[in-house]
Amino acid sequence: MKILIIGTNHAGIAAANTLLENYPEHEIVMLERNSNLSYLGCGTALWVGRQIDDYKGLFYTNEEAFAKKGARIYTETEVTEIDFKSKKVYAQKKDGEKIEESYDKLILATGSLPISPKFPGYDLEGLHFLKLFQEGQIVDKALSDESAKNVCVIGAGYIGVEIAEAAKRRGKNVRIFDAEATSLASYYDPEFAKMMDRNLEDHGIKTHFGELVQEYIGENGKVKAVKTDNGTYDADVVINSIGFRANTDLGKDHLELFNGGAYLVDRHFKTSDEDVYAIGDCASNYSNAIKDTTYIALASNAVRSGIVAAHNLAGTELEGAGVQGSNGINIFNLKLVSTGLTLKAAEKAGIEVDYVEHEDTQFPGFMPENYQVKLRIVFEKSSRRIVGAQLASDYDVSLLIHMFSLAIQEEVTIDKLALLDTFFLPHFNQPYNYITVAALKAKK
Ligand SMILES: Cc1cc2nc3c(=O)[nH]c(=O)nc-3n(C[C@H](O)[C@H](O)[C@H](O)COP(=O)(O)OP(=O)(O)OC[C@H]3O[C@@H](n4cnc5c(N)ncnc54)[C@H](O)[C@@H]3O)c2cc1C
Ligand SMILES: NC(=O)C1=CN([C@@H]2O[C@H](COP(=O)(O)OP(=O)(O)OC[C@H]3O[C@@H](n4cnc5c(N)ncnc54)[C@H](O)[C@@H]3O)[C@@H](O)[C@H]2O)C=CC1
User: Fold this and answer.
1) 20/435 Cα distance (integer angstroms)
2) 359-410 confidence digits (pLDDT tens)
3) Coiled-coil regions in this chain (predicted)?
4) Which of 66, 81, 105, 336 is the most exposed place for a label (fewest CB within 10 A)?
């Protein structure tokens, strides 16, 4: 069987590896428009903020590795059209050469594109996005210009907050804007998000939440200020980070879409076309918290969807486990992690929930070094199944969120969690720890 994979970043790579390692009898062709593959965007802010020395370690594989494994791989080759009827893909190489490939099965792994806000002045020089490695390089160069003093970040989601920290670490005056009342509003309830807001402000970043950007003001074709409904602010560098949209340009007229966005897929990541699978940021996913289709753009989901699609396509039935949207962030040492639904997300999904919360130190009081930890657990009122959790601390409590992720996936109730056997050792935690205490607070 001849299998074509379009897009070879995290999702496409996971699918290709699964096929090459488990089903070597198939012919694999990979098509990628970029010059590189496997760029870990999560490292952009670390590198731009000089927390790591350079970007070389942010790539975990390359074209040669796949050629060696037996795949035919084309980089700098953009797929321009797919004829789903005759099962043919048309592409163009960087030098203009046109190529044509047929397929028996097709995997779309074309990812996502940053949403571009079309405020007046959107085409000025000095406005940036942060999706590709090359865009990271451009932002890095812009911040290296000594005369660029003022940086405005539009959107205080994950990319925005991370790059705001990086720009501050590079000695810039940084302002961050978001339409919502706090940063990270789609990941955390206000009580947690406000800890991040305070953290940003304590480190000298000016926050402008609930303030709407209306215009980029320029001079001689270059941005010099950002105008909002509340004021005008100097800006030499503007970074736009108001979210991603699924990149479905190639298949949107043929394949069924989820809410007009990502390719709608089943639990095998198969699209509405029997011979076409879609994975990663260009595809929908299944949410265990809302028990319905969702769209969440994360590298972690992209990898898993690639593995599941590849097995199913090759004939081994494997149902995707669904997702919780588990995520984490670490800014100036404040760590926030969450999974599943916030109170607002639950309300939006029409799920009636309650929550319990507890804040305590990680270790018993007699330990010489200690940290505050704040935990919130969200559960469905009727079934009492856990549907979300949020944790905040300067201590690394990140691994705990995986337990809550599994709890959501497996529909564990808050009452079961209260009686869970959690070990105790002063070096790690307390006998009456914040998980147990929080869960015991859940009133019937
Ligand atoms: C700055 C930043 C930080 C991030 N941090 C994290 C993090 O910490 N944790 C996390 O889980 N996620 C993070 N993400 C999100 C994560 O990077 C994405 O969810 C992930 O890249 C999705 O992988 P993908 O392979 O589905 O899509 P993409 O990474 O978007 O890759 C799609 C590929 O398809 C190619 N392509 C598209 N169209 C065509 C075409 N017509 N022809 C040929 N090739 C094509 C593209 O060139 C691209 O290489 C971050 C993203 C960014 C930008
Ligand atoms: N640590 C992690 O896991 C990371 C994950 N990612 C993922 O990459 C994807 C893209 O990241 P982001 O672009 O940061 O998206 P995001 O969805 O995290 O945040 C976008 C932010 O922009 C705001 N916004 C939307 N429209 C706006 C407007 N017109 N004006 C002002 N604010 C506006 C939203 O309120 C939101 O806070 C996300 O899926 C994210 O989860 C990115 C970086 C790190």
Assistant:
1) 43
2) 999 999 999 999 999 999 999 999 999 999 999 999 999 999 999 999 999 9
3) none
4) 81
